[in-house]
Amino acid sequence: MKIDFIVCPDDIEYKLESKHHVTVREARQVLLHKPRIRFAEKGYTKGNDVYAAFGQTFAGRYLAVFFVYKPETAAAIIISARDMNKKEKKSYGKK
């Protein structure tokens, strides 16, 4: 999967910072720094599925970033991001 554009709507940006204490900059760093991506769920629109990206920020913070991938434009639209839980960190470290 190739990501050329990363978009984060304003209402999602507010949610990330207020609820999960993650900045958009950190979420983008995960998507740009060779994350481990897995399919999360089928999207409401055909071809716009939800994926989860697991990775680290440049500062070393472990995050899970959820995004909708638009294959026609190679764009990732961030819908949520949070710190990885213990199980996710353990799985991330093994690979």
Mind explaining what this structure looks like?
The protein is of the alpha+beta class and 95 residues long. The chain has a single domain (5-94), classed as Ribonuclease toxin, BrnT, of type II toxin-antitoxin system (Nuclear Transport Factor 2, Chain: A), CATH 3.10.450. Helices cover 31% and strands 36% of the residues. The protein contains three helices and five strands. Strands 1-5-4-3-2 form a five-stranded mixed beta sheet, sandwiched between helices. Strand 4 (62-70) and strand 5 form a beta hairpin. It is globular and about 35 Å long.
- What is the H/E order? EHHEEEEH
Distance between the termini: 18 Å
CATH superfamily membership, which one? Ribonuclease toxin, BrnT, of type II toxin-antitoxin system
- Count of discrete structural domains: 1
Mean pLDDT across the residues is 90
Read across the widest sheet, the strand sequence of neighbours is 1-5-4-3-2
Overall geometric form: globular
Strand segment tally: 5
Number of helices: 3
Looking at this protein, list some descriptive labels.
about 100 residues, alpha+beta, Nuclear Transport Factor 2, Chain: A, 5-stranded mixed sheet, 3 helices
Topology:
Blueprint: E1 5-7, H1 10-20, H2 24-32, E2 36-41, E3 50-56, E4 62-70, E5 75-83, H3 86-94
Parallel strand pairs: 1-5
Antiparallel strand pairs: 2-3, 3-4, 4-5
